[in-house]
From TrEMBL:
UniProt-listed InterPro entries: Phage_tail_E/E
Protein name per its UniProtKB record: Phage tail assembly protein
Pfam families the record matches: Phage_TAC_7
Amino acid sequence: MSKQKEGVNVTLDTPLTRGDNTVTDILLTKPNSGALRGTTLSDLMSLDVSALCKVLPRVSSPALTPQELNSMDPSDLVQLGTAFLDFLLPNSVRENLPQD
């Protein structure tokens, strides 16, 4: 079995602005089950926006705010969601996926 990544870096297509700083990359860390509270696995697996907006602030560095997620470029939300989705897949499924 292959070892699952503990974190993945996502480069945003449209950087976020925080005061005088620009955020171009977000590090997502592998969640524990507690980080998924308030959502359902099926919502996360289908990249439901509300579910992602609950979970992504808990696993992102720098931590994304709900306001940032709500105003984010949709392509960036999809990038973050699909990167997060990989954490939910069992090793047996991940082994059969094409490699980057």
